[in-house]
UniProtKB/TrEMBL annotation:
It holds the Pfam family ZT_dimer. The lineage of its organism: Bacteria, Bacillati, Actinomycetota, Actinomycetes, Micromonosporales. InterPro entries: Cation_efflux, Cation_efflux_CTD, Cation_efflux_CTD_sf, Cation_efflux_TM, Cation_efflux_TMD_sf, CDF/SLC30A. Residues 22-214 form the Cation efflux protein transmembrane domain. The keyword Membrane applies. One of its GO terms (cellular component) is plasma membrane. Residues 219-292 form the Cation efflux protein cytoplasmic domain. Belongs to the cation diffusion facilitator (CDF) transporter (TC 2.A.4) family. SLC30A subfamily. This is Cobalt-zinc-cadmium efflux system protein. It is a multi-pass membrane protein. It is found in: Membrane. The chain crosses the membrane at residues 22-41, 53-72, 84-109, 121-144, 156-178, 184-203. Keywords: Ion transport, Membrane, Transmembrane, Transmembrane helix, Transport.
Length: 304
């Protein structure tokens, strides 16, 4: 259906315009993530390690946006990839959720173990690296902000960076407390806070990715409502083999067999059915098979 290509083409073009900004933010945050991770082990700071893990979500979020841009650029270049590379974004999201959940659980467990006898932490280098992380997030925030209003992928990366600003501020606060008061508990407290903040978000991301990969219908959409709406299209006598799934974020797809009523016009039925899917459910791409009433049940339909 032509409308689907127009919609996704406009999103892709918006993202393409900010591709350079995405790469700049990706490189900046990737470098600082490595610096934070190394510094976390050198200083003994769990809060810094937790913040590095959170920055990892920023890097993966921007990477997913870049993957989606690549998918739109190369979607039609390989005839064997009939759905292009749109699922790269979903696979990256699942990997993000799994890896970051492991980091967050490790940090929380390790922090709880430190509450009884918190070890000394090198506050000065911890503070320096945390400030660098904050500056990197501010720069990335500025780079991504212009495109966040135009692309859902850029908006996701933008929100990740915005969230990481809070983590960096928390690490800076912990470093200052340790430097001024020698209150070593500040490090595990901030580490647990960041870990608890990350875990629900990663689990939601993981569930959303798995839902797409198993081709379940979108949560916001009732398949029975889609069935009833198609059945109400003038000229449609029956609907079967209806499937609705998500190809990648923001791209719903549907397929169905429509049995024609007596004297119905094929072109009018197709146009009305596609319009109903687009206007009522925001389904931009639908594959609809029209069958004459006499052929009902003879198309070899499969109950999935």
């Amino acid at each position: 259906m032509g409308a689907g290509h127009d919609h996704h083409g406009s999103v892709a073009n918006a993202a393409q315009q900010h591709r350079g900004r995405l790469w700049a933010a990706f490189g900046l945050l990737s470098g600082l993530m490595v610096v934070e991770a190394v510094a976390a082990f050198r200083t003994g700071s769990l809060a810094l390690l937790s913040d590095a893990g959170h920055m990892f979500t920023d890097v993966l979020g921007i990477g997913m946006a870049l993957a989606a841009i690549t998918a739109t650029r190369h979607a039609n270049r390989d005839p064997q990839r009939t759905f292009g590379l749109y699922r790269l974004e979903v696979l990256a999201a699942l990997a993000n959720a799994v890896l970051l959940s492991g980091v967050a659980v490790y940090v929380v467990v390790e922090a709880v173990g430190r509450f009884g006898d918190p070890p000394e932490v090198l506050a000065a280098p911890m503070l320096v690296v945390a400030v660098l992380g904050l500056l990197a997030n501010v720069v990335a925030f500025a780079l991504l902000r212009p495109g966040a209003r135009e692309s859902i992928n850029l908006q996701g990366a933008y929100l990740e960076v915005l969230g990481d600003l809070l983590g960096s501020l928390g690490v800076i606060g912990a470093a200052l407390l340790i430097a001024v008061t020698d209150w070593w508990w500040a490090d595990p407290v901030v580490a647990v806070a960041i870990g608890v903040f990350i875990l629900p978000r990663t689990w939601r991301l993981g569930r959303a990715a798995v839902r797409i990969l198993v081709q379940a219908a979108p949560k916001h959409l009732q398949v029975t409502a889609v069935h009833d709406r198609l059945a109400a299209v003038p000229g449609v006598a029956g609907v079967h083999d209806l499937h609705v799934w998500t190809l990648t974020s923001g791209m719903e797809v549907a397929s169905a067999h429509l049995t024609m009523g007596p004297g119905a016009d094929v072109g009018a039925v197709l146009a009305a059915a596609r319009s109903a899917l687009h206007e009522d459910f925001h389904i931009e791409h639908a594959t609809l098979q029209i069958e004459p009433g006499a052929a009902a049940g003879a198309c070899g339909s499969v109950e999935w």
